[in-house]
Amino acid sequence: NPQPSIEVTPDVALKRKQLIDNTADDPTPPAPAKKPKPDPEASTTVTPKPATKHGSIPTAKALSVKSILVPRGERTRANVGQKDDSLLRMVCDCSLTGKVTELHFRKIPHSMIDWNSAYHISKINAWRNQIYGRAGQKAKSVTMWHELEELWFELYFHLSIAEARSRGILLPTAKQIRDAFNETFVGQVLQGKHGDDLAVRTERQSNAFASKFNRMFPQLRERLNKCVFGKSGDVFVPKISFGMMHRYKAMKAKLAAKGIKNKSEDSENTEEWQQFLAHFTDDKDAEAKQETKE
DNA sequence: ACCACAAGCTCATCCCGGCT
DNA sequence: AGCCGGGATGAGCTTGTGGT
Predict the structure, then answer these.
(1) Region (Disordered): which ranges (predicted)?
(2) Long-range contacts made by residues A210-219, C-beta under 8 angstroms, separation at least 24?
């Protein structure tokens, strides 16, 4: 998969380093180039407005003046084995000016497109779907996971582990966990990164919930499984309040500030962590204060 | 329940026209 | 020419779905 030689000045080359990977005419799958993942705190709900923003808070002007290229007609997609050159262009109306713009698929030279190649078809659809999506013609909507929701998962494991160490418990079913989660979050208005109010939380459905749940904190899950192995008892579902989540978040921040390696998954042995957990659930007063502060 | 993949989201960069 | 601002575009990631 040789890089094409593109003549550019060094600084341009630098700026383009990402782009070069995919301006390549070579239409074979590129090697999965990894890059450090950004702060995953993002949590937004799909809105009909265009999602593109800069890091800073967008000005009212920027929001209201935004124009969108709206593709004409229904969503259509390319299918393997069905040649259709018309899918390589999209006629769009500019939502502001009404100007007509025709966008063209550029990823693969048209003469090289193999309509029997699943990879090529997928590239064409990725391009088309991106344009549809920007115009608000979504195929599905997504509610990003909020930091507090992820903290909930983390606490679920920590509290269950602590409980399993003190007595025999039975792990709840996926549905029981989800019900507890939804009971906590549904109807809540959480705040985004910039303190903005997000849309009211709605129920997380079983498949999506399980999908997320199973991806989170594999080490903690493993530890919990070890803790309950060979024992039995009542089903235990920890009760997790927003006050607990906030205090847990604060504690993590404190540890991080002290330079303590703060993968909570590894932190069971730190003294502070032990102490924190010990007073975590019975410290109702502190919690009540926390909650009223919100 | 798990896995593969489609679709969504954010961010960075490219691109281009207008202005100085 | 160089700067600026905003639209266009793609990468790289997350989330949700559907088949098995």
Answers:
(1) 1-56
(2) A210/A174, A210/A178, A212/A145, A212/A153, A213/A153, A213/A174, A213/A177, A213/A178, A216/A150, A216/A153, A216/A154, A217/A153, A217/A154, A217/A157, A217/A265, A219/A265, A219/A266
Å from the A172 CA to the C3 C1': 61
Q: Is A50 exposed, middle or buried (0-12, 13-18, 19+ CB in 10 A)?
A: middle
Is the confidence at residue A271, as pLDDT, over 70? Answer: no
Residue whose pair of structure tokens reads 């703060």 in the numeric block: A262
Rounded to whole angstroms, the Cα distance separating A279 from A109 reads 64
- pLDDT tens digit string along A225-242? 889 988 888 999 999 999
> A22: how many CB neighbours lie within 10 A of its CB?
11
**What pLDDT, on the 0 to 100 scale, is given for residue A272?**
63
Nucleotide nearest to A30 (CA to C1'): C11
Q: Which residue has the tokens 């004409």?
A: A72
Residues 147-186 of A with CB under 7 A from strand B: 173-174
pLDDT bracket for residue A92 (50, 70, 90):
confident
Give the distance, in angstroms, between residue A45 CA and nucleotide B10 C1'.
13
Amino acid found at A6: I
DSSP A206-252: HHHHHHHHHHS-HHHHHHHHHHHTT---EE------HHHHHHHHHHH
Amino acid identity of residue A79, one-letter, is: N
With vertex at residue A91, the alpha carbon angle to CA A90 and CA A95, rounded to the nearest 5 degrees, is 120
